[in-house]
Amino acid sequence: MSTTVLLAVTGLGLGALYFLVAAGLSLIFGLMDVLNFAHGALLSVGAYATWWAAGGHLPGAGSGGFGFVLAVCFGTAVGTVAAVVLELALIRPLYDRPREQVLATVGVGLAVPALLSAIWGPDARPFPGPAALSGTFGLLGARIPVNRLVLIGAAAVVLVALRLFLGGTRHGLVVRAGVEDRAMVTALGIDVRRAFTLVFAIGGAAAALGGALGGLYYGSVDPGQGTSLLIFAFVVVVIGGTFGAGGSGAATGSVAGAALAAVVVGLVQQFANYYTASGLGDLAVVVLLAVLLLLKPGGVTGRLA
């Protein structure tokens, strides 16, 4: 029983991490039809910025208490700025050229880890997390790492915030209207480009937050961490139905679908790794993806409005 509880909560924590990465990817593709292969690079930027700040290089930041919160905020802010720069400098000029857009984001996704490796080396660096989050607590006979709850809580907050943004704010409504009829919204005097930049900033913030908290989960940061997590993020958005969804109304459903898919992927991976052999959890996720694509190509949520 205790083993099952531990695997379940750990799987939920891993799923929460996948969701933080996949949420921005799903939002950007669902609303803007942009397949951003540089999304993992934004995660790496957020992770390294948090690691740098938590190491005491940023005044007021540190590895404990409020200092760590400040470090996470700094890492998330840096990732958000990087996302805005990416959209303005690279994505916006290529909105009508999807092939070049994909190639450009792939290039950024390869260049950023190489840059981080050149600056801080290719080896993993220990992540200076707070002592309060490095312990465990008891649940039904199992000792659960506290940082798993932090990831789950952060993912829940991001999910609620995204749904409120899309359905209950003026900017969210502008974005959704711009997806449906960009010319009409522009004719009303609304700058849709600013709204799309906002979407990119939100997606980058979610990815950077995932990178910042991913350091807690893995206990370290390395240049390739964003790339490896991006692979599972793509699996999550496919299973969640983002690529099978269409229109602005489907974006809300695809984010919810990504949350559900992230939970499934995290649990399958953890249980498969424990009850089979280490590493077979990745294979189990691939098999799950293949079966779903055969049985329900639209993903678990299909087309939601």
Structure description:
The protein has one domain: ABC transporter involved in vitamin B12 uptake, BtuC, CATH 1.10.3470. It has helices spanning 2-32, 39-57, 65-91, 98-120, 146-168, 170-180, 182-187, 192-218, 225-240, 248-275, 280-295; strands at residues 125-126, 136-139, 142-145, 220-221. The protein has 305 residues and is mainly alpha-helical. It has eleven helices and four strands, in the order H-H-H-H-E-E-E-H-H-H-H-E-H-H-H. It is globular and about 60 Å long. The chain is 74% helix and 4% strand. The chain starts with a helix and ends in a 10-residue tail after the last helix. The strands form two sheets. A two-stranded antiparallel sheet has the order 1-4. It has a two-stranded antiparallel ribbon with strand order 2-3. Keywords: Amino-acid transport, Cell membrane, Membrane, Transmembrane, Transmembrane helix, Transport.
Structure, briefly:
It is a multi-pass membrane protein. The chain has 305 residues and is mostly helical.
Structural class: mainly alpha
End-to-end distance: 40 Å
Q: Biggest sheet, in brief?
A: 2 strands, antiparallel
The shape, in one word, is globular
Number of domains: 1
Please trace the helix and strand order, writing H or E for each element.
Answer: HHHHEEEHHHHEHHH
CATH class: Mainly Alpha
If classified by CATH, what would the architecture be? Orthogonal Bundle
> Could you tell me the strand content as a percent range?
under 5%
Number of strands: 4
Q: Mean pLDDT, rounded to whole units?
A: 82
As a percent range, the share of helical residues equals over 70%
Order of strands, main sheet, comes to 1-4
> What is the count of DSSP helices, taking H or I runs of 4+ residues?
11
Low-confidence stretches: 246-250
What is the third-level CATH name, the topology?
ABC transporter involved in vitamin B12 uptake, BtuC
